[in-house]
Amino acid sequence: MNNLIDIESGQIRLEDNLFSYKMTFEEALSLSKSFKIETFDYNNGYKWINLNEIELNGEYFYFRFCFKSDLLDTIDFGFSSLKKLKRTWSDWTNASELSKQELYEKWLTDNLSPKRNFEWGNIETYYDPKRGTAGITVKFI
Prior knowledge:
Blueprint: E1 12-14, E2 17-19, H1 25-31, E3 36-41, E4 46-56, E5 59-68, E6 71-80, H2 82-85, H3 94-111, E7 117-118, E8 121-128, E9 133-140
Antiparallel strand pairs: 1-2, 3-4, 4-5, 5-6, 6-9, 7-8, 8-9
């Protein structure tokens, strides 16, 4: 899995598609056509491309590409097994989300690097208690 994120360039590889911080919304949209996709334009300078249920090594990933002024600014992503993917809010607990954050931290260390800051930006895990979710964020500089 270590080729999902290139730590030298910050590029994200999904199948044969490379997503990079210099990419525009339209460029990313054209690369996203083979995925289950949603797009959002909030008419405030931010646009989103959401890719869902991308299977990689038995896990199901989601990616949320955030574009600021039409350029890729942030990527938020996470993963779970198919069984966990089918869960509802009635299955949610604070402890399970905190556990997920720990899983993501271990995944980053094992599959990327213990280092979190790079020339192109940084990558970190988070738990957002207001949204009730944990994830991984790639923030480009």
